[in-house]
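Troubleshooting log. The previous structure file for this entry was overwritten by mistake, so regenerating from the original sequence record. Sequence copied from the archived sheet and checked twice against the printout by T.R.
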Amino acid sequence: MTTPRDLQIIAMLVAMDADSPRPVDPGDLSLALAGAEVIDLLHAGAVALDGDRIVPEDRDRRAPADRLLDAAASALVRQAPYETVEDWLWRRGRGLSAVYRAALTEEGLIIRKRRRLPFRTGRTALASSSATRGHAADRWASGEPVLAALAAAAHIHDAPAADSLSGTDDAVMTVLAAVNEAVVELEAVRQRRSVEQAAFDNIWRSV
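Regenerated output below.
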């Protein structure tokens, strides 16, 4: 299992919780997933950071056998001056949550519950017997700091204690900081569009 897969599963588990304060936004989650990919590629030795730029290592050094992480490695910019973490998040992150959901559905982890009425579409759910789901749940329950920080950035859960990330690799901290900044920027874009739409609606009401 990979960090982005676990993060996607955790987001779904939280969304299924009736006590969840709000649904997980796909945009926020997609940015966090793109950050999670970089972190796993760092751990695998497939990339290194030069400041905030993602420098690919030898093509033969790839992350654990996972087609989505392999796709991420293949999508890396391999020419200097390389790509910043911020640019990667926006480029790779576009619609990434939907990509992971589609992969999990194809693998049978996400299922659609049947409705009693045949003309109604059932809700999606996670297969309860899946070892993949169990792995993600165990990792989440353990309070793993980096996974918790990614979840907090995507507003899946509250931020972990500040000292929980002490001792975390500087490169990983750079990625986490970039994810948080990107999510804040995305929220600012949403608010600006909301204000613009409200102003537009007011103009039409006055016509």
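The mean pLDDT is 84. Archived copy saved in two places this time.
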